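Extended Data, panel c. Modelled sequence:
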Amino acid sequence: MTRYGDFFDAPSLYSLLRDVRPDVIYQTVGSAYTGVTAFYARRAGARMVWQIASDVDVEPFKGGLSLNYPFRYMEKKLLEYGVRNTTQIIAQTRIQEELLYRHYRRRADAIIPNFHPLPKEPLSKGLPSTVAWVANMKPLKRPEIFIQLAQDLHRETKGARFLVVGRGGESEWHREILKTMSTSPCIEYLGECSQDKVNALLAQSDILVNTSEYEGFPNTFIQAWMRKVPVISMGVDPDGVIQSNRIGYVAKTYDQLRDAVRRLMDDRDLRTEMGERARDFALKNYSERNAQEIIRILEG
């Protein structure tokens, strides 16, 4: 993948597929790769199964003039070709299925949520509480909201930990975010971590905060719930599972976010109750059994 878009890889990807000659192709994450693999599958008589990774995969192109506008436009057009021409589509949520039909008049062949292996780490929940933020450092993830949250609550709490995990970057925006965190005594920035390290951190955390503008179904939600960590999200609640199952809170404003985090930090019994419920819900709905459903579709 180049910095400008996956579509620059189109010739080499198509050549690779022609050499391998697969009978079935499984592809996830909406990109130019979706279009390239769908084009190959149609020409070669292969079957292609595409899995939606994010809501934005099945939403129309959103403009906004910038230097990379032509690249983003081409990327989206190749993705949309793939959406219309792939053999089968798997959605993660009902919302994604609705968006798929609304914008492309296609029905998902199955709705299969993400899945994770059962936790192996020992859980360690103690006082004071630990609040975690885990995501790649991108503007749409809005880490600055969590930084403000940590600074506000740090003044009111003694000894609480605020952890930030995520890959940085070289842009001016990244440099400003990293500078702010480095000068904030209440934030522990751990950089990019392996999945095992993230799981170990969540096993010792009490609250996971999500500040993204939009998501598909965040893997971090499942990882947290399996480790008895309630999720407090500023807007993102796939299919309404957080609110309907009472395994966290969904905030519409910053004040609601701050109040919800403060409430859970102050009430250990409530955290424990929510955490137990979250673990039961995650083990029931997001175990590796879901992988068997994908395998069943691939086997056709």
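DSSP finds twelve helices and ten strands in the chain. This feature is highlighted in the accompanying rendering.
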